[in-house]
Structures are given as C-alpha cells and as structure tokens.
From TrEMBL:
Residues 149-191 form the Zinc finger CGNR domain. This is Zinc finger CGNR domain-containing protein. Signal peptide: none annotated. PANTHER family: BLL6575 PROTEIN. It comes from the Bacteria.
Length: 196
C-alpha cells in the first residue's frame, strides 16, 4: 500500500481507498496483524516491537477485535474532522467529541517521562496502544505547523489526504502517477472528443 500522506495520521486516514466513491471503497488494512504491519510501514512501530506485540496478542486469549474496532472507530472520526479542516468548516460536534475522548484516553494510558521538553509516550505493547499513539499524533498534527498544508486529493472519489510539502503549496494529487495521471487522461480524452 502506498504511503502518500507524509504524516502517519494522514496515512492512517488513507488506509481506506476511494473513500468518497462508495462503489469503489476498499479497506486496505484488515485484522490485527495487518494493522501491526501497517504501523511498521507508517513508522509508528519498529519491526522488533511489532514482533513482540504480535506475540503478546497471540498469547492472549481475549481477541484483539476491540483494538481493531477502536482503530476503525478513530479513523471514521478522523475523516469528517480532516474534511472540515481542508474545507475550512467547523468539524461536526459528535466526531469532534469522539476525537477529544480518544486524545484524553491516549494521554491517560501514556507515560510522561520526567524530562524536558515534556513528551507523552504511548505504549507499544498491545494493539490498543496503536490507537492511543495515533490519537496523540493527531493532536500533534492538528496543533502543529503542518496544519495549513493538509490537503485532500482532487481526484474524484479518492478522498486521500496528504501534507503538501511542495514549495509552491499547490500540490493537488495524492500521487501524480495515480490520480494525477487519471486527470491527464480524462482531459486528453475530453480534448480528443472535442476535436473528433
Ligand atoms: Zn487521489
């Protein structure tokens, strides 16, 4: 799965492809193990921690469904909040409250080492910790310098988010090879139809 977001939280939101086109929507990460592998790819877990985490999940008789459900829930809450940010709208109240709860729970479960600058450190022991890590990273994203560079791909139906790090700040596509190419093909087709 390509990671085009440029920030783990945006890559997390992008784990569903074609979010805005229900006929094509596909969840790219299914199940606890897939989430752990994704977390490694997204830079949220080291490979060693991931192996230990998977062993801990496998050794536990309680199924990790609650943790994957929490991840899917957080992702569903993130979409309208990020959409609101991109569209310069106020986020919907229910999702905002759910996001706030996620952030509070994440801090409650995090370690705060006695060192400066202070930094909340989420656990890396169980799959549930991944949800907390993402909630804390969401707080970073939504209060940090990158806020004005969060964009949503202009491809119809795509819905992927990314941090626009281009100097001009005019990046439009999740990927120039993907949605960017489709747009070029679409415009080419429209032009040739006009001429034909
Ligand atoms: Zn796109």
């Amino acid at each position: 799965m390509p990671l085009v977001g440029g920030h783990p939280v945006l890559d997390f939101a992008n784990t569903v492809a074609w979010r805005l086109d229900p006929a094509r929507t596909v969840d790219r990460v299914r199940g606890a193990e897939a989430w752990v592998r994704w977390a490694v790819a997204a830079g949220l877990l080291t490979a060693d921690r991931a192996e230990a985490l998977l062993r801990a999940e496998a050794a536990d008789s309680t199924p990790s469904n609650a943790a994957t459900a929490a991840l899917i829930g957080l992702r569903a809450v993130l979409w309208p909040v990020l959409d609101a940010l991109v569209d310069d709208q106020q986020p919907p109240a229910a999702e905002w409250e759910a996001l706030r709860r996620n952030m509070v729970l994440a801090r409650e479960g995090a370690v705060l080492p006695p060192a400066f600058p202070l930094r909340w450190q989420p656990g890396t022991v169980r799959l549930g910790d991944l949800c907390h890590a993402l909630a804390l990273r969401t707080e970073d994203l939504l209060s940090g310098d990158g806020l004005g560079r969060v964009r949503r791909c202009a491809g119809p139906g795509c819905g992927w988010f990314f941090l626009d790090r281009s100097r001009s700040g005019t990046r439009r596509w999740c990927s120039s090879e993907d949605c960017g190419n489709r747009d070029r093909a679409r415009r080419h087709y429209a032009r040739t139809r006009q001429h034909g």
